[in-house]
């Protein structure tokens, strides 16, 4: 099945005689787009065709436009930002395409591991705005689910039974913190900034491992 746009419908039958076929590469399906997005977001897992190192290189920011603090360019992607439910700016990586009556957006949000695909035909051209609006709607719900999951897995006071070692973990505005760290009887916080009463945890990308 092929979608023929009301704007410039003749494009559906044009032959570009190269890899841009058909219709400048704009013919696809939501199913194919979803498979592509999943392959990006599952990079580095067993059976993936894309290594985690390659993916991280692809989404690396090459230049930030300081005049707006909103847009950046990467090696492969255009990068924009959107606020999450905790008012933090998070990066969205996308590619936009247009050919006469066809308009498309493929976008990923690596911070919460999901993507959005928008395929349009007709006179309305702004697939990017629709993708951006989808992120705005979904993000608060995903932030809530992730916070609940992190709370159930990590928040609490953890004690090592065979030594005087205690770690207290809390979550605040979507970020995990260590509020107390006693290692073999020594308060480790005394070795850090005396004005800081907590330390943020960052994932090492290994299961249940933070630094």
**In whole angstroms, how far apart are the ends?**
50 Å
Helix content: 10-25%
Question: Any low-confidence stretches, pLDDT <50, length ≥5?
Answer: none
Instruction: Tell me the structural class.
Output: alpha+beta
Instruction: Walk across the major sheet and give the strand order.
Output: 1-2-3-4-5-6
Q: Order of SSEs, N→C? A: HHEEEEEEHEEEEE
By DSSP, the count of extended strands is 11
Number of domains: 2
Mean pLDDT comes to 87
Percent of residues in beta strands? 25-35%
Dominant shape:
elongated
Count the DSSP helices: 3
Give the radius of gyration: 22 Å
Taking the sheet with the most strands, its summary is:
6 strands, antiparallel
Could you characterize the architecture of this molecule?
By secondary structure, this protein is of the alpha+beta class. It has two domains: 9-151, no CATH class; 155-200, no CATH class. Helix content is 22%, strand content 32%. The protein has a six-stranded antiparallel sheet with strand order 1-2-3-4-5-6, sandwiched between helices. The longest helix has 28 residues, at 127-154. The N and C termini lie far apart (50 Å). It comes from Lentinula edodes (Shiitake mushroom).
């Amino acid at each position: 099945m092929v979608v023929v746009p009301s704007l410039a419908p003749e494009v559906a039958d044009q032959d570009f005689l190269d890899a841009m076929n058909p219709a400048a590469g704009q013919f696809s399906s939501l199913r194919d787009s979803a498979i592509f997005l999943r392959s990006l977001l599952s990079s580095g897992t067993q059976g993936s065709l894309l290594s985690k190192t390659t993916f991280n290189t692809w989404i690396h920011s090459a230049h930030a436009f300081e005049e707006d603090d909103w847009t950046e360019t990467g090696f492969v992607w255009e990068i924009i930002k959107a606020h999450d439910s905790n008012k933090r700016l998070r990066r969205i990586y996308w590619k936009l395409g247009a050919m006469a009556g066809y308009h498309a957006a493929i976008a990923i949000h690596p911070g919460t591991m999901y993507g959005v695909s928008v395929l349009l035909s007709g006179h309305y051209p702004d697939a990017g705005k629709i993708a951006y609006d989808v992120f705005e709607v979904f993000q608060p719900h995903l932030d809530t689910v992730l916070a609940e999951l992190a709370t159930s897995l990590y928040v609490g006071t953890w004690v090592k039974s065979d030594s005087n070692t205690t770690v207290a973990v809390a979550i605040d505005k979507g970020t995990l913190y260590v509020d107390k760290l006693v290692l073999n009887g020594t308060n480790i916080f005394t070795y850090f900034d005396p004005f800081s009463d907590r330390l943020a945890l960052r994932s090492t990308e290994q299961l249940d491992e933070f630094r």
